[in-house]
Amino acid sequence: MFFDPLFFLMIAPALLLAIWAQARVHSAYQRASQVPCSLTGAEAARRLLDSQGLYDVAIEETPGFLSDHYDPTQRVLRLSPGVYRGQHMAAAGIAAHEAGHAMQHAAQYAPLVLRNLAVPAASFGGNAGFWMIILGALFSSPALIWFGIIAFGGVVVFQLINLPVEFDASRRAKEHLAILGLANQQQLEAVDDVLSAAAWTYVAATLQAVLTLLYLLLRFGGVGQSDE
Asked: Is the pLDDT score of 2 beyond 70?
């Protein structure tokens, strides 16, 4: 199936969107990194967390470029070196976004709870789903094909749930940077530029998952098509 021209044709819009989104993230990051901030990314995140009473959420530096994430199992914000140490609005905005996830976790934000519950299904579907479909096609087993398609549906569900989670984290980031007086209007515009660009990467990932599922349904879902 990975050599099927139809597959690449169907997911082409998502791939093009992902390429454009990544380019936009890098350009937005470069622009926002020219806008100074009074705090480093780590310090800004600490201010946001402490303002919500989240003193027990740690902040650590992690290797990589834009490898920033919040680990709900360890209750740790892990920030890339450029964000952890950077004293500009790109760093502050990204760090605040990750702090927004910690706020969601503390508030038991419903989409985040659902996303965490969907993680095992998405991991299983993303890895095993394709193999079940391939094996089902090889051994002419419609049941195995459908099980694989349903398993991959877990990836689509995860991505759809992930969108509001990421959008809300960005909203919280901008809102609390303003409330705490850590960013003026110009600085908030720089933050919005970075986080809006990042949002398109989540949209691209969701679109790719949806289009892949549609391809699987079109290619393998029909009666007798698994014998091709």
From this structure: no
